[in-house]
Specification:
alpha/beta; Aspartate Aminotransferase, domain 2; 3 domains; transcription regulation; four-stranded antiparallel sheet; pyridoxal phosphate; eight-stranded mixed sheet; 14% strand; Arc Repressor Mutant, subunit A; single chain; 16 helices; Aspartate Aminotransferase, domain 1
Length: 490
C-alpha cells in the first residue's frame, strides 16, 4: 500500500475508533515527514484526503485539527413487553419465475428472450459518449411521469406505420415494460370497482395465459374468468355475458400457444366489450415480427368505441434490460392511469427514453428492425421445417408471427417428459405447458388432451437450432429403439 494511503488509513482508524477526538491536533506536516523520513508532499496528500472526508480541517497558523465526532452511542433501553395483536401478515405475490430463472442447459429454447445481439450497442455507445446538456438535465431532474414527449411522438409515428393505429402522444404513457402497465391497470380497476360498487373487479383472460398478467389479476383480488383458446385465438362465443371490467388478450401471437385471433373474432370481441361494458387490454408484445405478407390489423386500429387499451414493449426489439414499454389509453381512463403511474414510481428511465426517441427519429430503428426480422425469419423457418419433419403427427401453432413456435402433438405426456429429460442431459432444453403452468392452463387442458411443447428461437442462432433438432432426433430414435411408449394421449 502506498505511504500516502497508509498515513490516511492510520489516522482514519484512529479518528473513527475514538483514539483521536474532535479538537485534537495532528502532527504538523514537517514533523510527521521528518519522523517518517518521507517527502512532505506524501503527508500533504494524505491530510488533504482526510480534509475532503470531513475528518480534519486546516487552521492557518495552528495546524490540522480533528473535527469528526463519533455518533453518540445511545444506551439501549429495555422496552416493557405488553400483550397485543401481532402485526398483520403479508401474502406474497406469485411471479412468473420462468422469465427470471437462469438457464439450466447449454442450448435453451427459451420463450420471450431476443437475440443477445439485438441491442444496438454501437448506436448506444455513440449517443452515450457524446456530451449533451439535455442528457445532464434528464439524469439530474424529474420529468413527466407520462414519459418524454419526444418518445411518445415517435411511438405515434411507428404505430401508424407498423400497426395502422392512429393515436396521439397525449394518450401514450411510457411504462417499465408491459408488466408495469398490466400492474397499473389491474390496481386501478380493482380499486375503482371496490370503492364505487363495493364489489370485485371481473376480468376475463385467456386459458392458458401469460403468467405476469394472470398472477397480477389474482393477487390484487380480481374475479378472473378463464376462456379457452384454439387455433383462431380466444373463443369469443364462450365469453361470459355479464358485467365485466377488463378482458386481457394477446391477439397477434397468443402467449403461450401462439395462435392468432382471427379477423371475425376480433370484430366479435369488440362487440362483446360494448355489450358488457368492458375495456380490452391488447398485449401486442410479439406483433412486430410477422412472417405473413398481410398481417391482421391491431385490435386498437379497429376500435371505433375507444374500448381497447393497447400495451406495447421494446423488450423484443431492443432487449428486456431497457425496461421500456407503453400504454395507449382511451380518453376516459387516461387521467386515472397517469395518476397511478405517478404514484407508483414517478416515471421511467428518461435517459433511455431520449436515446430511443433519437434512435427512432433518425430512422436507424427501422433499419435495425428490418435486420432483426431477416435473422429471426430464417431461424423460424429452420425450426418450423425441422419440427414438422420430427413430429409429422403434430401441428405447429404460432408460425405467423413472434419468436416462438408451439408444437401440439398427440404423443403421450410420459413420452414427451422422458424425451425432455434425455435432451436436458444432452445439453438441450425445451419446455412443455406443464413447466409454464400458473393455473390459467387448467381449463384448456380439460378441453384438450394433447401434449404441448414450446420452442423459443430468438436467442439461438442457426447452428444452435440445428443442434437442438439433431439432439431431439437422436433422443427420439433412442427412445423408440428402447421400446418407449409413444401412445397418443387418451
Amino acid at each position: 500500500m502506498p505511504l500516502q494511503s497508509q498515513i490516511f488509513q492510520y489516522y482514519y482508524q484512529a479518528i473513527t475508533l475514538g483514539e483521536c477526538v474532535a479538537g485534537d491536533m495532528l502532527p504538523s506536516i514537517r514533523m510527521l515527514a521528518g519522523k517518517l523520513q518521507i517527502a512532505r508532499i506524501t503527508v500533504v496528500l494524505a491530510y488533504e484526503k482526510l480534509i475532503s472526508g470531513g475528518f480534519i480541517k486546516s487552521r492557518p497558523g495552528i495546524g490540522y485539527q480533528v473535527i469528526f465526532d463519533r455518533p453518540i452511542e445511545m444506551a439501549l433501553q429495555e422496552i416493557p413487553y405488553s400483550i397485543g395483536p401481532e402485526p398483520t401478515g403479508l401474502i406474497a405475490a406469485e411471479v412468473p419465475g420462468d422469465l427470471y430463472n437462469q438457464p439450466t442447459a447449454e442450448l435453451y429454447c427459451r420463450m420471450s428472450i431476443p437475440d443477445p445481439n439485438a441491442f444496438p450497442w454501437s448506436s448506444w455507445r455513440k449517443w452515450n459518449n457524446a456530451p449533451s446538456y439535455l442528457k445532464e438535465q434528464l439524469a439530474t431532474r424529474y420529468h413527466s411521469p407520462q414519459g418524454l414527449l419526444s418518445l411518445r411522438q415517435e411511438i405515434v409515428r411507428y404505430l401508424r406505420l407498423s400497426r395502422a393505429i392512429n393515436t396521439r402522444p397525449e394518450n401514450i404513457i411510457i411504462t417499465n415494460g408491459t408488466q408495469e402497465g398490466l400492474s397499473l391497470l389491474t390496481q386501478l380497476f380493482v380499486l375503482n370497482q371496490a370503492r364505487i360498487n363495493l364489489s370485485r373487479c371481473h376480468i376475463v383472460a385467456e386459458s392458458p395465459c401469460y403468467s405476469g398478467a394472470w398472477h397480477s389479476f389474482n393477487y390484487y383480488g380480481a374475479q378472473v374468468t378463464a376462456v379457452d383458446v384454439d387455433e383462431q385465438g380466444i373463443c369469443v362465443s364462450r365469453m361470459p355475458e355479464c358485467s365485466t371490467q377488463l378482458c386481457y388478450v394477446t391477439p397477434s401471437h397468443q402467449y403461450p400457444l401462439g395462435s392468432k385471433l382471427s379477423l371475425s373474432r376480433r370484430k366479435k370481441l369488440l362487440l362483446w366489450a360494448q355489450r358488457v361494458g368492458a375495456y380490452i387490454i391488447e398485449d401486442d408484445y410479439d406483433a412486430v415480427f410477422s412472417w405473413e405478407e398481410k398481417p391482421l390489423p391491431a385490435l386498437k386500429s379497429m376500435d371505433s368505441c375507444d374500448r381497447v387499451i393497447y400495451a406495447g414493449t421494446f423488450s423484443k426489439t431492443l432487449g428486456p434490460g431497457i425496461r421500456l414499454g407503453y400504454l395507449i389509453c382511451p380518453d376516459s381512463i387516461l387521467e386515472s392511469v397517469q395518476s397511478m403511474k405517478a404514484l407508483n414510481n414517478s416515471g421511467s428511465n428518461w435517459l433511455f427514453q431520449q436515446f430511443l426517441a433519437e434512435f427512432m427519429h433518425n430512422q436507424v430503428f427501422y433499419t435495425h428492425l428490418s435486420k432483426l426480422s431477416c435473422v429471426y425469419e430464417e431461424r423460424q423457418r429452420l425450426l418450423h421445417e425441422g419440427l414438422l419433419r420430427l413430429f409429422p403427427e403434430g401441428k405447429i401453432w404460432g408460425h405467423a408471427a413472434g419468436l416462438h413456435l408451439t408444437l401440439i402433438t398427440p404423443l403421450s405426456v410420459e413420452f414427451i417428459q422422458t424425451l425432455r429429460q434425455r435432451c436436458l442431459r444432452a445439453g438441450v432444453r425445451f419446455d412443455t405447458l406443464n413447466e409454464m403452468a400458473n393455473g390459467s392452463e387448467s381449463l384448456w387442458q380439460q378441453m384438450n388432451n394433447q401434449s404441448v411443447i414450446l420452442f423459443g428461437f430468438g436467442s439461438l442462432n442457426l447452428q444452435q437450432l440445428q443442434k437442438v433438432l439433431t439432439v431431439i432426433e437422436q433422443e427420439m430414435n433412442s427412445l423408440r429403439a428402447e421400446g418407449a411408449s409413444i401412445n397418443a394421449v387418451a
